[in-house]
Each structure stands twice: as C-alpha cells, then as structure tokens.
Specification:
Largest sheet of chain A: 9 strands, mixed
Strand content of chain B: 25-35%
Shape of chain A: globular
Largest sheet of chain B: 7 strands, mixed
Oligomer: heterodimer
C-alpha cells in the first residue's frame, strides 16, 4: 500500500472545518458565517492578575493615593508621575510608548471591567476569562475556539498561540496551533523522506481505527488525530512562510514577549488567513515588592508597552485590521497589602489597540479614550470594602469585539448564557 | 456551588442512617460518621468528622469518648457550630489496636495503625542536629554546643527532653533550651570544657525526645600559648573590608557590661561585615572561635559565615547555640597562607518583623589557633581508605611541614582529619563521578550465579578516557573502560554477611573518584545450582493470545551472558537480547500475527560471554496460540500491561515478569510498600553522586532529579510521588533550586504516605512556604496566597463552598508559619545558608477565627503551633478533601473524567482508612471502571519517562530538552495548580511536534548493543518478514503490544531496510518510528 499525503492535504486543507469536524455537531445553532478576510484579533493574556489601577491610573480619584501609600503612581507632573490621559486617568510612566497611540485614538482603555462571580482564584478566573463562561467552567472550551467553530475562515491556519502550549482560550473542537516560534517547525518536512514520513504519520494518526466503543467522542484518540492533522497542515504552510527571512518595519525590543509579537506580525503579513493569535505575558501576581513608578511591576509594564508599540509600528496601515486586546485573571486589591504588593481583587482594566478603535471614536484625532463608568475608590464604593467594583461585564467587551471586529454575529454560540449590553468600544452607543 | 448542595454532598458521603431531626438539640442517634469504620494512626493526632442531617440551630457539643483509653484518646471535644451540618473532634492514636469511638451516643469502630517512620512527614526534622561545632572542628577551652530539633508535641515536650552523649557514655544536660512558646523548633545549648577530654578526636551525639542524631567528630586540642592569637572584636571595628563586600560602613561598637572590655561589635544586618586583618606567620590550618550572643526571632538564632580575603564563598559557618554570651567554635579549620590575610564574619540571616521580633548578633572576642602547621598534602585515595582511621600522614607530609614526630599529638590528629577532608574535596573538584547502578541497594545474594554489576561514570576523559576498577572489600576485582562499565562478580569472592563494593574511576590527568559504596549481603551458605535457564511465563500448555511475551530466568550462570534469544518451534524468532542481566528476567515479545495458531514449543537459549561457549537452553515449553482475531477478554498478560500503563511507566520487563510471577494483588502490595527498595534508594545515591550539588544556584538539580526518575526501581512509587509533587506543585524559579530539590527528596522519601502526612510535609516544606508567600504572612500583615491555595488546590477544592472570609481567617490562623535561613555545617559541599521550616508564635495572630465551619479559639503562644496543626488535620479529614483528592487520583489512574460512582467509592476508602492512599490505590484495580477506561494521553513527562525506562536509557539531557520545549519542564510549572490532568492539555500541535522530534532522535540502548548480524540482500518476502519482526519487536518493547491497523501500515511505509545494514541499526530505526506513532502517546 502506498500512502500519499497529497490526498489528505487536499481534503483537509479545502475542507478542514467542514469535513473533519462537522460530524461532531459543531454547527448546532445559527448558520456559520464566513468571517471578513484580513481581520486579526491578537489577545495578550497578562497571567497572574494585572494591577489595572497602576496601569491606567485614576490619579484624580481622592481614594487612590491614600490606599497605596508606597506603590501609588504620583499625579502627572511629579517625578515618576502618571502620563495624563484625560484629566482623571493617567498612564503608568513606563507605558510611555503607548501614549502616542492613545493620542491618535488608536488605543483605548476599558476600566472597571469584571463580572459578578469572581472567585479571586488565578485558575478559576483565567478559565472564566478564557472560556467566557462563569461558574463551573470545568468542561467549557475557549471562547476564541467557539468563534472559530461557529464561523468559516479563509484557510487551514485560523488560530495560533505563540507559546509553550495551547491555552484554554483556543482549546476546543476547531483546530488551533501552538508554537513557540516560527522557527520551531523545521520538522518533519523538506525532503522526500520527510514527505513520506509526514504522509505515513497522517495515515497512522488520522485513519487508525476509531476508539473502541468504550471511548467517548472527544477522547484522547480523537484529540490526537485532530492535533496530528493540524500539525502536519500547519507545518507545510508555515514552512512556506519561513522560507524567506523576515524584515520587520520596526525595531522590536529584545524581549521574549516582543519576539512573540514579531512572529505574530509576520504571520499577519503573510496573509495566511490567521484571524486569532494568542500570546502570554506572565509575572503579574505581584503580592510583594510590586513597586510604583519603578520596580518589578514597572518592568512588566515597560515590556508590555514597548512590545505593543513596536508591533503597531511594524504593522503600519494593517493596524486598522488588527486589534490587540489585553486580558488578565482579575484586578488587584485597591489597597496595598503588608508586603508592598497587592492581593487578588475584582474589577480591572483592559487595553485595546488598533482595529477600528479610532474609527469608532469618530474623527481623525479624537484624543485619549477611557471607556468606563467609574465606580470610585472610597471605602463605600469598593466591592466588599476592598476591591474596585466592576461596572462593565467582560463578556460585553468580548461580545462587541467578536461581532464588530471579527464580524461573527453568533454570540449565543460564542458567549452563551449572557445578555449582551453595548460597551461603546468599537461601536458608538 | 451553593453551600446547601455542598452540605448535601458531604452528607451523601457520610455513612449511617439519616433520621429526621426533632426540634431542639439534635438527638444523639442522628449523628453519623464519614465511614462505617475509621482508621487512626498511632502517635498522631487527627481530626474526625461527624455530621447531622440538618444544619444546627445552636452550638452542639456532644460528649465524645473512646472505649479503650489505651488505644486512643480524645484531645479536643466534639463541636458543631450553629449553621453547620459537619462538626469535628480531635483524637490521638496511642497504640495499634481496635476500639470504639462514641460521639453523643452514636458510635463507630476505629482501628489504630502504626505509621511507617518513612511515611512520617516530619521524621527528618525530629532528628536532633548538632549545628555547632561542626564535624571536623577543633576545640579547646570551654565551648558551647548547639543542638536543635523539631518538638511537635502539643504545647511542647515537658521534662528532660534533650541531652548530649559524651565519649564516655555520660549524658550531659543542656544549660538552656528555648521554650515552646518561642516555636516548635527548640534550640538547646550545652557547655563543655575541652580540658575534660583527652587530646584527639571525640564523638558527640545529640539526643532529643528519644531520637538520636548523627555523631559529630571534633578534635580536642591542647594548644600552647604561642599557637593562639586572641583579641577584642571591637578593636578591629574600623578595619578595611574586602572590596567584594562593597561596603563603606564600619562595624557598630556598643557598650555591653557583660562583654569583655565592656564593649562588643553589634551586627544588625549583613552589611557591614566584621573583618579581622591578619599577618599569618606560617602557612597552616587555623580554627576560629568567637564569643558571641544574639537574639532569637522568626524562630531562628543568628547564623554567621566566614569569608577569607576576597573569596566569594564562605570558608566556615556557625550557628549560635543560644541568646546569651557563649564561646562558639566557627566551622572547620581554615587554611591560611603566610602573609597578609583577612577573615570577614557576616551575619547571614538578618530578620526584622517589629521591635520584639528582631534577630541580631553581637561579637565580643575572637581566638584563632593554629591547629596544623604547613600544608596537608593529598595522600593517595587508596592510602586513605586502606589505612582507615590510622592514615599514614608521614609518607605524604610535605617538606614545609615539621616532621610528624615533632608535632603535638593533637596537631597530628587534627592533620589527619584535615587530610581526609581535603582529599574528599579534591575528589569532588576533579569532575569525575561514578556510581553503581545495578544491583540495587539492599540486594541479598543467596545463590552462586554470577552477578552483573553495572556502573555509570562521567568526567573529563569522556567515554574512552575513563577507566574504572571494581573494589570488593577494598581489593581490586576487575577493570573496565568507558562510561558504562560492566563487571561480572562471582559470589565466591564475597564474604558471608556485608560486603562493600565500590567503583574507582580514573579520568584524564589521573583525576579520580570513588563511588558511594554498595553494600551486598551474602548468605552464610550459597545455593549451588547448575547453570540453567527456565521459562517463567507462559505456563505449560497455557493458551496465549495476541500480543503476549515470554519471560525466562537464568540461574547459577558462571559467566555473564553475551546474548539470549527465543526459539519458536526450534527457529530463532526476532532479534537477540544482547548483554542481558542474568539477575533480571529476560523478556521476549511474542508478536503473534505472523505465527500459525495451534500447539507450539518455545525455548530460550542463552550464550555465555566467556571462552566456554556452551549455550544454556531451557526445556521446551508447550503452548497453544490462540488465533489473532479471537474475541476473548484480556488475559493475564494484557492485564499486566494495563496495570503497568496506569500504575507505572509502561512495559518494563522486570515489572512484567514480577507481576506475572506473583500475581496482580501481591505485585501491587509490594510496589506500594517499601519492600522493593529502602526509601533511601540506590537511585538517589547514584543520581546524587553523578550530579553532585553545587555551592550556588544548583544547576545540576534538574539532571540529578531526572536521573533519579530514570534509575528509581519502583515505578508505582515513582508515579505516585510525581503525582503528589504535582498536586502540591511549587515552581523552581521561585523556590530556588536547592529548596525544590529538598522538597523533591522529601516526597520521594515519603512515597505513598497517608494524605495527612503529605499535606503536613508540603505545609512545612520551605519551598512551598516561599513559593506561596506564606513566609511573609505575619500577624497584622496577612498574605492570603497560601491559605487560598491550601483550600482550593491542596485540600477541599474550589467548589467546596468556602468563602473569602474563610480564606482570610485561615490566613490569620497560619500567620507566623514560615521559614528561616540558617547556616549549613558544610559550605564546601553545598550552599552555606539554607531555609528550614519554622513557626514563630510571636508572629501568629492567635485571635479567635472561624474557618469553614470550625471554630479556632484564642490561643496562647504555646498553643498556636498545635492550632495550625489542628487546622491542617481538619482539612485532611474533611469529606470534601476525600472527594477532591479521589477525583484527582481517579483522573490520574483511571480516566481523565472519572465517573462519579468511582470517585465516591474511592472517597469512602479514603475516609475509612484515615486517608491511607495505599488503600485508595489498591481499591482502583478492584473496580471495573479501571479495566474499561479508554486510553489516556500521556503527559510529556510520562511520554519521555516511558520510552526511556522501558528501553534502559539513562541520559537526562535529552529528556530535559524535550520537557522544556514541550512547555512541561520538570519543576517548572509556574502556577500552583500543577500540570493539568486533562488529555486535551497534551494533545496540541506544540506537544506533538516536540514528541515527534524527540522520537526521531531516540535511542533504544537495551536493544541497541551490537547485534551485528548484517542484512544480506534477500528475497523481498524475507526482507518484509525481517522488517515486520523488527517493528513488532520494537513496538512490543516500547508499548507492551505489537502494532496493528493503520499504525502497522504506516510503520511499514516508514521503515525501509537497507541491504548490509546491521540488525541493531534497523531495530533502532524501527524503535524511532514506533516512538512517533499514536500507540506511544497513550497509556
């Protein structure tokens, strides 16, 4: 018997979603729509619980400085002070590279975002933000994966996580690729032996006997078959991209985070139909020695801001089709704790850059925009007298992005069990 | 989860009839217990849960007692709070036995069992340690001895609790011991006068709470006045500091009426160091002593380290014996070269948590005595061991040293100890490492058959430059070259009783080392048996099915075998096993699909390596092959593979053999207990010899740990240990390598211990307390991180129904539960400062708290440690914990999403057995779900360990690279939930890409040792048969089953045999192909 991968490639590439996955009941619900070609959402997950109050700083809130004696960011104009955005909020001084993006209207921040059942547990809350399902998220797949599964894209490589493993947000029925970097896919492939190996592997993984009657659908064997197919397809596709060297249009800082962003930009510019990219920036669990304008937290802010700024410069005009969104586990306590840090809290801020943020604001240079109904930091205004309240549900933000930026109207499928309210980030209210 | 549902769930777990509640105080008969019988552990306190059907409307305090007070006692009354359905009492197991526990008239049988010492969480901490003086120190005059140990008796042990055993057998009582109100780690100070002992070495042994610590050997000196230099510390307060300390400050001098000269140097922080400038008249070894005092805070006394000149690493360390002025012998003798030098003393463990909790140290006087003039030259290593204690220094003494005869006797004794220490350090620094891999520790030799001894060497000189001698009781018994030396040991050369076997490996430039000795026990009389090989499985006339194997044992062989092969109806079947171990079972896969069903004969043939080339051949074994497509339930062999897949790391031949030999139940009992190897197993000794600890930032930790995982003989214990460590996950990048290593060792030593012991071990692990910031959570300065994960991840689980208040209140109960840094006795071999568990009652809030339905009343300082222990006991005994832990165990051992019925069944065993996880694991294969469960995806660690262990691979490097690239590095999970238990987490593209890469570079050492039979151009049908045989052999070795279906088709496509290729080469390529197929991804 002669096995040729070509047959598999043809069937899987053209019908990757339809053939491979349709039998598993993916299209229950509304008809899938074909997403707009060329749009990309880049989700940056800030793992550990990012302290939003020191990122988009409510310096004019009378409660702010009093709650954070050692770690507060000073008001604008003072040494190490915040960079003023709108007279009430300011940027952390190490986020300076983002200031031009705020001024041009390309960047906006959402503040006091959260939801009502926060458990303040990293794992529960990362799961909640990644699955878009509150309460028992144990068996839910990622909301980005449900977006993929409820829409039709433009090629086999719709979703990529640049990192060690596939994050929850991309796990589910639809294929998604995790890679540490574009240089990471050198095998198998290249010569005739490698092609022969690839074909044989696909045969072994994808046409083996289905699991015995005892194995439930979606069990380990099905997962592996799906993963093998994506791996082989993506390898073939990405090897074409990496065949020529990349010349970024901007200089990136020498950080691991920026290297991931540069790979993301390269993927976007290669026009493969990649519409969802996820990458992580970890280390935000600042229980102690958080610092203020300088220190541990400030270094993270700098890594984030410099990376995102370089990414936007590299993308140039394409930024209008690319939206960068930061998510995190939860906000942190409004007051600092006994060890110069902050503990797990409640409402938080999100950063959104590019992708129609400016257009939604209306006008050429609308100026810095903070989308929020500010709850205040006085003791009585705090959730359980300790945390920033949430006044915007995070699923409303995600919903607006899925329907406006990714142009997928199937919100009942992507973010089930939620009644969506307009937020005003990408669509004027 | 709503609280009412949680309570209902707990109630469902509690056995006993539910009787409707009448109004008022709940009647006694409605009380139920978590299980129809309960287990307690002797010499342990535990919480016992009881429940009532409806939430109590008021405080409910049923009477509680135990029928036989000799077996157990109630140490805290039963109590159930308003609004709760679950209450707790506290019981202490006294003696193994059975009795009845009565609570409010309801009763439950209880059994008290003995906890193996190896499974006790704090066994190591209870052993008293003498921290000053250290081994090898030289003493003169009056000096203080420091001993500390964990006293975990509630409220502290009363009466005489600590002593020092002197060389004449006398027991010396301490001058002072810190009270339990200052923490459970007690510090004792003894004062000795060296003048009372004869010059030369003496041994001092600490004893505490009936536990004996290690002896410390010090040398008693009688120095003449001209050998001593002494002075006041304050006199050099302004001396120039070595540049490496980057300080501009000078030492603070304070008035102190009790100090000599009325003044002392105060050290309030590590900076500045106190420096003693020296003009050394003669090169030699000098012992430092300091008169010092300090304060106790954060549960620890001050530690000092001594730095020579500009050196980065300290040359000596010391740990104060108490808070009052004392004369402290600091570390071992220090080598000083003639000329200008300086010694700088740094206060290493500064701590400040308020005015009353401030650790500082004051230095009054110093003394420096010359203990040996000149330089001790390295005597040859063999000379040291051959001469034993009476080492002949005269032969090696350099010209610069005075003749030995002219030395004082004490100086000579000191020189001997110094010489031994220097020789050991030179060996350590040579970079050559050697270890004995097989046989394992504790092996008993009973018959006259040859023993295959295999070593592992590393070091300069590489593969070819290393030469290794085997020493049996000090005598040379053979020489081998290379990194994997193999020796045949004839039991006739061993003496009856204990035998000491060592490897001595020499690398380039004569650098050499000696392995840790292996002690082999030889029976008084050896069984003389004729050399023979016998088939152990299958049994005569057994009907065997698809995918089985043949197991044979060799006995009485006089020479090591060169190879072994299986004959099928007289014809060789499959490639040979090359260089097999005659002490281990021989495993031949028997892929059936090409063989005709019906009656056949199996024979095993073993060819000796020596001149006497007469093959041993087994008697033919008649078997009946079942047709390949016969539809039959899994037989013994298939069941063995499933057990090994789930409880161990796949089809390891020795495990298959043992399992088939003794049966499933006994095999699992053996593996769950410590009977396979002592807890301090040869795997750990070998791993630590090959990758010795480094002084700073121990970069060898991961390769050392991986080597231990490869060499550990008991796969069941290993899988469980890795599970437990992942359950109580900590991250090496936050804990530091040293603390993580110690934690890893601790879990390995505990093995399959009761859950309460694992919880206590984790809760007192410095790595965990550092990782989750608990050590920073002090009275008035709460940090909730550890308290939250303790509930959410370690015990009751996130859906148990606790609230934010419960987390905050538990954090309050836990305040002061922390770590402290203290000096180690041996800074030349490892870090000078190390973290240990401490509890400081002063930094504990001690206020009344209610945590998850249990009241914690205001506690006095002496009660606070025990109050934390009780909180941990309640969590360990909580029905929600039983369910949460059993869910995770069922996921690990059975199915990623286990059925509720299975979880409930395991939880019942957990609750009835006092959290005995051996009992829970034993229950698993008794359940039908275990045998019916669909395949589970391997984690990257599973995947790599299975391939490496079944094939005898021992290189940690490729494993480490693979794990890191797969995002699953050993000890490298940043978040405290540990690596996930789901299949999906390991099936992504990234994981698969890395698996394929690893497989493509994978070697199969056990099959790859030079079966030189070359493939001659032959008929295509013969080549196809040869190819299939190679594939099936590799598949059976790697997975325990032959290939079938699409994987077989794909593997045939991938393996192309090249004429002229040696058999070992294409079998290796076949293995690399198999290692890329889906079959190896599952377990």
């Amino acid at each position: 018997m002669k096995i040729s991968r070509r047959d598999f490639l043809r069937s899987s590439a053209a019908l990757a979603v339809g053939v491979a996955l349709a039998p598993r009941g993916l299209f229950a619900g509304p008809e899938p729509v074909t997403v707009q070609r060329g749009r990309t959402l880049v989700v940056v997950f800030l793992r550990g619980g990012m302290d939003g109050l020191n990122f988009i700083v409510p310096y004019a809130d009378p409660g702010y400085a009093a709650l954070r004696k050692n770690i507060a960011i000073a008001p604008p104009g003072q040494p190490g002070g915040a960079l003023d955005l709108n007279g009430f909020f300011g940027l952390h001084p190490k986020a300076a590279p983002l200031l031009p993006l705020f001024r041009s209207g390309d960047a906006a921040a959402l503040h006091a975002v959260g939801y009502g059942e926060n458990t303040r547990s990293h794992f529960e809350e990362q799961d909640t933000w990644e699955t878009g399902v509150s309460g028992n998220a144990l068996h839910a797949d990622g909301w980005l994966n449900r977006h993929l599964a409820s829409s039709l894209g433009h090629g086999p490589l719709r979703a990529v996580a640049v990192g060690d493993a596939l994050p929850r947000i991309l796990r589910g029925d639809a294929p998604a690729l995790a890679l540490q970097g574009l240089a990471d896919l050198s095998t198998p492939g290249g010569n005739a032996q490698a092609r022969r190996t690839a074909a044989a592997l696909e045969y072994a993984y994808c046409s083996g006997p289905r699991p015995a009657a005892t194995a439930p659908r979606g069990g380990a064997q099905d997962l592996l078959a799906q993963s093998a197919r994506s791996t082989l397809d993506a390898t073939a596709l990405l090897q074409r991209v990496t065949a020529s060297p990349y010349q970024p249009a901007a200089e990136y800082p020498k950080t691991d985070f920026s290297r991931k962003l540069q790979d993301a930009a390269r993927l976007i510019k290669a026009d493969l139909g990649v519409e969802v990219i996820e990458l992580d920036l970890s280390g935000w669990d600042t229980h102690q020695s958080q610092g203020g304008a300088e220190g541990n937290y400030a270094r993270l802010v700098q890594t984030l801001a410099e990376g995102v700024a370089a990414f936007t410069r590299d993308l140039g005009d394409r930024l209008n089709d690319v939206l960068v969104l930061t998510l995190s586990d939860f906000g942190r306590t409004a007051a600092e704790n006994g060890t110069g840090g902050t503990d797990h809290g409640w409402g938080n801020c999100l950063l959104a850059v590019g992708g129609g943020v400016r257009a939604a604001a209306g006008g050429a240079a609308p100026g810095p925009r903070i989308v929020t109904r500010w709850p205040g930091l006085e003791r009585e205004q705090l959730h359980q007298h300790r945390d920033l309240q949430h006044t915007t549900d995070f699923r409303d933000v995600l919903g607006e992005i899925v329907s406006e930026h990714l142009a997928n109207p199937n919100l009942t499928r992507v973010l089930p069990g939620h009644v969506h309210q307009p937020v005003g980030l990408l669509r004027a209210i | 989860m709503p609280r009412s549902f949680r309570s209902a769930l707990c109630a469902a777990l509690l056995a006993g009839a539910v009787i409707p509640v009448r109004a008022g105080e709940p009647p006694a008969e409605v009380i139920s217990f978590p299980a129809p019988r309960l287990t307690l552990w002797a010499d342990r306190t535990q919480a016992v849960a009881f429940a009532i059907p409806e939430a109590a409307t008021e405080l409910f305090l049923p009477t509680a007692d135990i029928a036989d007070p000799a077996v157990a006692e109630v140490t805290r009354p039963a109590e159930l709070l308003p609004g709760e359905k679950l209450g707790f009492l506290r019981v202490r197991g006294l003696h193994p036995g059975k009795t009845i526990l009565r609570v409010g008239g309801a009763s439950v049988p209880i059994e008290v069992r003995k906890l193996p010492e190896s499974a006790r969480a704090e066994a190591a901490a209870r052993i008293p340690r003498m921290t000053a003086p250290v081994n090898g120190a030289c003493v003169w005059g009056k000096f203080s001895v420091a001993v500390d140990w964990l006293d975990d008796a509630p409220g502290g042990t009363a009466g005489p609790l600590v002593a020092l055993r002197l060389p004449d057998g006398r027991r010396l009582a301490p001058v002072v011991v810190t009270p339990a109100t200052l923490g459970p780690v007690r510090h004792a100070r003894f004062d000795l006068d060296a003048a009372e002992f004869p010059p030369g070495p003496i041994d001092l042994i600490p004893l505490a709470s009936a536990v004996e610590g290690s002896a410390v050997r010090v040398v008693v000196l009688r120095p003449a006045a001209d050998r001593i230099r002494a002075g006041e510390c304050e006199d050099t307060a302004a001396a120039a500091r070595p540049a490496r300390f980057k300080t501009t400050k000078i030492s603070t001098v304070v008035n102190d009426a009790d100090a000599s000269g009325g003044k002392a140097v105060a050290c309030y922080s590590p900076d500045p160091v106190w420096t003693l400038p020296l003009e050394v008249a003669a090169t030699g070894y000098y012992q430092l002593a300091l008169v010092a005092r300090g304060t106790l805070a954060g549960g620890a006394l001050p530690s000092l380290a001594v730095y020579l000149n500009e050196e980065e690493n300290p040359v000596a360390t010391a740990h104060l014996a108490g808070v009052h002025w004392q004369r402290l012998i600091v570390g071992r003798p220090i080598r000083l070269e003639a000329g200008t030098a300086s010694l700088s003393v740094r206060f290493e463990n500064d701590f400040f948590a308020g005015k009353d909790s401030d650790r500082n140290v004051w230095l009054d006087r110093y003394e420096l005595v010359r203990v040996y003039a000149g330089r001790v030259q390295q005597p040859a290593l063999t000379a040291i061991s051959a001469a034993g204690n009476g080492i002949a220094l005269a032969d090696a003494a350099p010209a610069t040293a005075p003749p030995l005869a002219a030395m004082d006797p004490d100086e000579r004794a000191a020189g001997e100890l110094i010489a031994r220490e220097e020789a050991a350090l030179t060996e350590l620094a040579s970079g050559v490492q050697a270890a004995i891999i097989t046989p394992g520790a504790g092996a008993k030799i009973e018959d006259a058959g040859i023993i295959r001894l295999e070593g592992w060497c590393r070091g300069p000189g590489g593969k070819d430059g290393l030469k290794t001698d085997l020493l049996v009781n000090g005598r040379n018994a053979g020489t081998a070259r290379g990194e994997r030396p193999v020796f045949g040991v004839n039991p006739g050369v061993l003496t009856a009783g204990a035998n000491r076997l060592e490897l001595e490996t020499t690398g380039l430039e004569g650098k050499r080392t000696r392995s840790m000795p292996l002690v082999l026990w030889r029976a008084e009389k050896l069984r003389e048996s004729a050399a023979a090989v016998a088939i152990a499985y299958p049994a005569p006339d057994q009907v065997i099915g698809v995918a089985e194997g043949v197991i044979a044992r060799v006995a009485g062989a006089r020479e090591l075998p060169a190879w072994a092969e299986l004959l099928f109806d007289g014809e060789p079947l499959g490639p040979r096993l090359v260089d097999p171990d005659p002490g281990a079972p021989l495993f031949f896969p028997l892929p059936l699909d090409a063989l005709a069903p019906g009656a056949h004969a199996l024979t095993v043939r073993v060819m000796p390596a020596g001149k006497d080339k007469v093959a041993l051949e087994s008697a033919p074994r008649a078997v009946v092959l079942r047709p390949a497509d016969a539809d039959t339930p899994p037989g013994r062999f298939a069941r063995a593979i499933r057990l090994l897949d789930r409880f161990g790391f796949g089809a390891e031949p020795a495990e298959i053999a043992r399992l088939l030999e003794v049966g499933e139940d006994r095999w699992l009992d053996e593996r769950l207990s410590d009977s396979v190897e002592p807890a301090e197993s040869s795997a750990w000794i070998a791993a630590s010899s090959l990758f010795p600890p480094m002084r700073k930032d121990d970069a060898a930790t991961i390769p050392r740990a991986l080597t231990g995982l490869l060499l550990e003989r008991n796969p069941v214990r290993l899988r469980f240990t890795l599970w437990a460590e992942n359950h109580f996950s900590t991250w090496i990048q936050k804990t530091g390598a040293r603390a993580k290593w110690l934690e890893h060792r601790m879990f390995s030593r505990l093995g399959v211990a009761p859950f309460g012991e694992l919880l206590l071990a984790s809760a007192t692990s410095p790595a965990m307390l550092q990782y989750l910031d608990q050590q920073k959570s002090l009275a008035g300065r709460l940090n909730e991180n550890y308290a939250r994960e303790l509930l959410e991840l370690h015990t009751v689980g996130v859906h148990a129904g606790y609230t934010q208040d419960d987390v905050t209140h538990l954090a309050s109960v836990l305040t002061g539960w922390m770590t402290a840094e203290e000096s180690t006795p041996d800074p030349a071999r490892g870090p000078a400062i190390e973290r240990g568990f401490r509890f400081d009652p002063v930094l504990n809030e001690g206020s009344a708290q209610r945590v998850f339905g249990v009241a914690y009343r205001v506690a006095t300082p002496a009660e606070r440690f025990d109050r934390v222990r009780f909180a941990l006991e309640v969590l360990a005994a909580h029905p929600a914990t039983a369910r949460f832990i059993c869910h995770k165990l069922a996921a690990q051992y059975v199915a990623a999403e286990p059925a509720d019925a299975l979880i409930e069944a395991l939880a019942r065993v957990f609750l009835a057995s006092g959290g005995d996880l051996r009992a829970v694991l034993r229950e698993i294969p008794r359940r039908a779900e275990f045998w019916q469960a669909p395949p589970r995806m391997t984690t990257p660690l599973d995947f790599a360990l299975r391939l490496a262990r079944v094939s005898g691979s021992r290189q940690p490097g490729p494993l480490n690279d693979f794990l890191r690239r797969s995002g699953a590095g050993l000890f490298d999970r940043p978040s405290p939930d540990g690596y996930p238990e789901s299949d999906a987490a390991y099936a992504d593209t990234q994981a698969l890409t890395q698996r394929w890469r690893f497989a493509q570079n994978f070697a199969l050492p056990a099959l790859d040792r030079g079966d030189d039979t070359a493939l001659s151009p032959r008929h295509p049908a013969v080549l196809r048969a040869e190819r299939d045989a190679a594939l099936q052999l590799a598949a059976s070795r790697l997975t325990g089953r032959p290939l079938a279906g699409a994987s077989l088709t794909a593997a045939r496509e991938m393996l192309v045999l090249r004429p002229g290729e040696r058999r070992s080469e294409y079998v290796r390529r076949a293995a690399q192909i198999i290692a890329q197929l889906p079959e190896v991804e599952f377990r």
